[in-house]
Amino acid sequence: MSIVHLPSTASGAEIAEVMRRDGAVIVDDVADDATLDAFFAEMQPHVEATPGGSDDFSGRSTRRTGGLLARSKTAQDLVMHPTVLATCDDFLSHVTSYQLHLTQIIDIGPHSPAQQIHRDQWAFDFFEFPTGYDVQCNTIWAGDDFTEENGATRLVIGSNRREDKLRFGIEDSVPAEMSRGSVLFYSGSVYHGGGENTTDRHRRAINITYNVSFLRQEENQYLSVPREVAATFPEDLQRLMGYRLGAYALGYIDDVRDPISVLRDRSVDHGFQVGS
Q1: Domain 5-264 in this protein, CATH class
Q2: DSSP 142-191
């Protein structure tokens, strides 16, 4: 079974509908070259300073560079893209709120082996969420053309509706081949993995994921983005980072205050100073 492609004009509801059925869908040509060029120019020094992975799963010749919001102004446009948020609004509509879960560049080096097929939601201590109850809405933006030869992400279509802790091989999956600037939307419950890069070139991707607010973030946004930097962001982005109540009272501070007040209310003495 191949991965469905939708045009950039697709609505969040249309994208979410395919995700619920197949676990993944590609939306073509969401970002233009100028946006991606600006993003990678801002991030290149950080990518060059990032070591390869420490084990086979993370990829010993794969660089995973995070902290995108603190390091790239253009990253804000990707994180807050209207099509992405509209899809999250629909796909995660069964919860009170969702939050930014992870931001990173995944740079697969030349001649890198394929990654083990897995579910992203296994990050939550391998908890077995009920089938059909999704806790993540994930995106992979193609920083280069994705081909089977250069390590396009591989997915087991429909496996989001399968039981947990299954083992799949590369032969069970299909590559998410797409042009630069296209976006792979996929659930945390679909089995997938990075493909083998058999070329002499790097394959760059921008992995930005969102999860339900009652679960912990994989990338700690409060420390990845210094508070004085976060304070300059638009309020919608601050709340998406986690500076909000997760449900009725999850994540409040001191006297049951909304955590957004740490960044927005300058008249309150919080007992600490910016940069502390």
Answers
A1: mainly beta
A2: ESS-B-TTBT--EE-TTGGGSPSS----GGG-EE--B-TT-EEEEETTS-
